[in-house]
Write a structure and sequence with these properties.
22 helices, OB fold (Dihydrolipoamide Acetyltransferase, E2P), 687 residues, Rossmann fold, 6-stranded parallel β-sheet
């Protein structure tokens, strides 16, 4: 039969039905899958030590002819396979404890490469971690060492067997690999052609060669993904012409004059970006990503006022009633000099209040509307919705966001998030959006000092909380679980709320967690906001919470149980007023890891996002946003940002010239995307 990349792997010599089952567990079903099954690490056995110079205690790679073999029992009943090697310098014994079956594989006269530690056992003895038969008796073989690829393996199939299978068929498989890129593109990016890359991945001369091969495969998968993103972005923008707003400077200039503070450089830049988008003929689709306390709401307000100046309405949707109320209060305060008042539409309003609000929105009397999911109910109609702002956009599903957008005729869309993510992730997860970052904090914000403490400091920490509350301030105390039945070894919010109430009899202690009814939870948070509660005990449910400028202490118990990005969000709940604030991470000595120490040394959310990415990897952070669910196998987000930038540029240029990849020279790109991405066909239908 003629071999093709789509041929079932079971037809390859040395596979058969049983081995095909094991390969399927690794996702290898076709010969193409086998070709792209890359090693997850390499053993550098390029430096060969003469047998006579292999010293006890060293890690060495040796090459020699097998002069004798045998299986010897030990006193503990363990059977050890031994082989004596000879090279020009002398002899050395190799020993494989518990592997007597190797007697069937390693024969006298073979040329063997063995790599591992040298120990002393009745003389010098090499205990190989890895070995490779370089040549049989009578055959010439390489005298030097080599780089050994180590492959992901599975039950019933060792990485050595996979290596042997790939090496046996590699030349035939490489002949099937057609490079979809023109040479000029590979040269511009600085990656090898496809066959050279696959050869370097599976049969590298050096570890550096293997890395170059990986970079080419990483570029390819990032490039495919960026083609999908560029196409989705082009469709989103061109599907319907947007509203071309005009810069009338009626409300926006007055807001700037009356603001009680100066905008930061980042805020001014963001306002310009958004104004450029809104005054262009295509729809705005922008993500405003700002660290906690960088002033996203004010930037969004300038956008909303630009819509109002053009006789359109603007709507802002938040994930919780408390957050919607908070935005309502902030906007009311900022808009007072302009004689504008935002409409608040949330679930807890009475039926007559809701009906009246809906009527004002439908008639256009309410021009700026703030609300929760209540905004997307069928009964809510806008007279002329021109801008949709969605806060903490990741808390809403795609359908919920779309439902609000559908309330208008192609309104512009501005998404806000207080969860900074590294640029590499932003380009990948939000490649269909334009992204603006806010990094600068407005002056006048209180500083937050972060400290790592162990159990021995508990009494001191409690005293500190007592003194802060006595001075009229408030504190949060965070636990990883709600009750002790979840994890007996962890302190839990419900138990500790009672314990803290006993420890601080003179203070009022509140409790908030995810299993409470929304009304009960909101009631406790409102009481804390209004100063009726001194200490709020909570789980990470308050991570995206309310603005309580009076709260100055954030105590996080079992800090090691939280991700770095989550810790940063929790820390962002304090330091919102002018007073100095404190975040205290409490954990046992063993858990006081370098990652927590690194967290205490920076308050930059973008830096923390980078650390979080290094720690947790791409998969966990990307979640469901990964387009079509195709996870990355070769790219490393901690190191491959230049490759990603190059992939984004190249993909953008191609989609600009050939939006549906209909040109013959792009047929391979199109076929690969349709096969790899669930949405591929839908995105690249012609016309």
């Amino acid at each position: 039969m003629t071999l093709q990349l789509a041929t079932s792997v079971k037809y390859l010599k040395g596979v058969g039905p049983k081995r095909a089952e094991a390969l399927a567990r690794l996702g290898i079903r076709t010969v193409g899958d086998l070709l792209y099954h890359a090693p997850h690490r390499y053993l550098d056995a390029t430096t060969v030590t003469p047998l006579a110079r292999a010293h006890v205690g060293e890690e060495v790679t040796c090459v020699g002819r097998v002069v004798s073999t045998g299986v010897l029992p030990t006193r503990k009943g363990l059977r050890v396979f031994r082989a004596v090697l000879r090279d020009a310098s002398g002899l050395l014994e190799c020993a494989w404890p518990g592997q007597p079956f190797l007697e069937r594989q390693i024969k006298k006269g073979q040329l063997l490469l063995a790599t591992g530690p040298v120990r002393y056992y009745h003389g010098r003895q090499l205990v190989p971690r890895e070995f490779v038969i370089l040549a049989d008796e009578g055959e010439e073989g390489p005298e030097g060492g080599m780089v050994l690829p180590v492959y992901p393996a599975t039950e019933g199939l060792t990485h050595r067997q996979i290596r042997s299978l790939i090496q046996q068929h590699l030349d035939a498989l490489l002949a099937l690999a057609d490079d979809p890129h023109p040479q000029a593109l590979s040269d511009a990016v600085g990656v090898p052609d496809l066959r050279s890359a696959l050869t370097a991945v599976h049969r590298p001369a050096t570890v550096a060669d293997a890395e170059l091969g990986r970079q080419r495969l990483a570029f390819d998968e990032l490039f495919d993904q960026q083609l999908v993103q560029a196409r989705a972005r082009a469709l989103a923008k061109r599907a319907r012409a947007g509203i071309r707003f005009e810069l009338r400077k009626e409300f926006t200039t007055r807001l700037k004059q009356h603001l009680p503070f100066e905008l930061t450089g980042d805020q001014r830049r963001a306002v310009r970006d958004i104004a450029d988008d809104m005054t262009a003929p295509l729809r705005m689709h922008r993500l405003l990503m700002g660290d906690v306390g960088t002033g996203k709401t004010v930037v969004a307000l300038f956008a909303m006022l630009l819509a109002l100046e053009n006789d359109y309405q603007a709507a802002m949707m938040a994930p919780t009633e408390l957050l919607a109320e908070q935005h309502g209060a902030t906007l009311t305060r900022l808009l007072e000099p302009l004689a504008l008042r935002p409409e608040l539409l949330i679930g807890r309003l009475s039926a007559p209040e809701k009906a009246a609000a809906r009527e004002r929105i439908a008639s256009g009397a309410s021009r700026l509307v703030v609300g929760t999911h209540a905004l997307i109910q069928e009964s809510v109609r806008f007279r002329r919705l021109g801008l949709v702002v969605i806060d903490e956009q990741h808390r809403f599903g795609v359908e919920q966001r779309a439902a609000l957008v559908e309330k208008g005729d192609a309104p512009d869309v501005l998404l806000l998030t207080a969860t900074p993510i590294p640029r590499s992730l932003a380009l990948t997860l939000y490649g269909d959006l334009d992204v603006t970052e806010l990094r600068e904090r407005p002056p006048g914000r209180g500083t937050v000092k972060t400290a790592l403490r162990t159990e021995g400091a508990r009494a001191k920490i409690y005293e500190f909380i007592r003194s802060e509350c006595a001075a009229g301030r408030q504190a949060y105390v965070i636990y990883p679980v709600i009750d002790e039945s979840e994890r007996a070894d962890l302190k839990a919010a419900t138990t500790m709320a009672a314990a803290l109430a006993r420890a601080f009899p003179e203070l009022r202690v509140g409790l908030v967690h995810g299993r409470q009814k929304p009304d009960e939870r909101d009631g406790a948070m409102r009481a804390f906001r209004d100063g009726a509660i001194h200490i709020l005990v909570a789980t990470s449910v308050i991570e995206v919470g309310i603005d309580v400028p009076n709260a100055t202490v954030m105590l996080i118990e079992h800090a090691e149980r939280f991700g770095l990005a989550q810790l940063h969000q929790l820390r962002g709940r304090v330091g919102r007023g002018a007073a100095a604030s404190h975040c205290i991470l409490l954990c046992d000595v063993a858990a006081a890891t370098p990652r927590l120490r690194a967290f205490t040394e920076t308050t930059d959310g973008f830096r923390i996002a980078e650390l979080d990415l290094q720690e947790r990897g791409m998969g966990e952070l990307a979640g469901a946003r990964q387009s079509g669910g195709a996870l990355l196998r070769y790219a490393n987000f901690a190191t491959d940002l230049p490759l990603l930038e190059a992939a984004r540029r190249a993909a953008g240029q191609i989609i600009a010239r050939d939006p549906t990849l209909a040109a013959p020279e792009h047929a391979a790109y199109r076929a690969r995307i349709v096969a790899r991405y669930e949405r591929g066909f839908e995105l690249f239908r012609v016309g």
